[in-house]
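Illustration 12: Major facilitator superfamily (MFS) profile domain-containing protein.
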Amino acid sequence: MGGAASGAFNAARQLGSAIGVALFGTLTAASASSAFYTGMRLSAVVVAACFLGGAVLAALSRSAARSAPNPSANEAS
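Figure caption equivalent — predicted structure in token form:
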């Protein structure tokens, strides 16, 4: 089972990287050459929003995992 989880994680990471490169390349190419910095600024805002969203989701899932009851702990006693 560990091999399947590792494969799924690696596939998701590679897919996210490919989508990220394609998205930010599109954002910078869509802007005119004189507006290159506008496209880069937009890309940076999108990256920051994705990073913050991921951090919030990670924090919420971590706190939910800690607050979930552990049924195996009750069986051990």
